[in-house]
Design brief:
Structural class: alpha+beta
Number of helices: 5
Order of helices and strands: EEHHHEEHH
Distance between the termini: 49 Å
Shape: elongated
CATH architecture of one domain: Orthogonal Bundle
Strand content: 5-15%
């Protein structure tokens, strides 16, 4: 298998920078034809998002009597389903939260927050909400 050389590009506004000098990476390549692809790096969910999710699930557990792991599994099945092709057949699978991007995890948390309010009448505050610290102390 061919060795893969990588170069990280960071774009901030009109500024573009690299994690190393491009010429130094290109000098490592053997003669030949190459294809360069630019793929946006995916940021995994944050620890803060994970902590908030489990805090919310603890609240739902205490308010409904449903174990928080079951609450987690329920919301994953409700909001993190996707269709895949498996051996020529379309199947529905449920993704977990650990592999979600920050952006997708934000959507998931918003979906959980809205559903808890609608289905159970439970208000799940965001960290910047006025009464979040009190909520945190109650359900930590």
């Amino acid at each position: 298998m061919a060795k893969v050389h990588s170069l990280t590009l960071i774009k901030d506004g009109e500024q573009v920078s690299f994690d190393k000098e491009p010429a130094s990476v290109f000098s490592l390549l053997r003669n030949g034809r190459y294809t360069v692809s630019i793929v946006r790096e995916r940021q995994p969910r944050s620890l803060d998002q994970n902590s908030l999710m489990w805090l919310w699930f603890t609240c739902i557990e205490q308010e409904t009597g449903t174990p928080r792991q079951d609450v987690h599994d329920y919301y994953c099945a409700k909001f993190l389903r996707k269709q895949i092709s498996w051996n020529g057949t379309i199947r529905t699978v449920v993704e977990g939260t650990s592999k979600q991007s920050k952006e997708r995890m934000t959507v998931f948390l918003n979906e959980v927050q809205a559903d808890a309010a609608t289905e159970f009448g439970i208000t799940l505050p965001n960290p910047d909400d006025r009464y979040f610290e009190q909520f945190h102390q109650t359900y930590k």
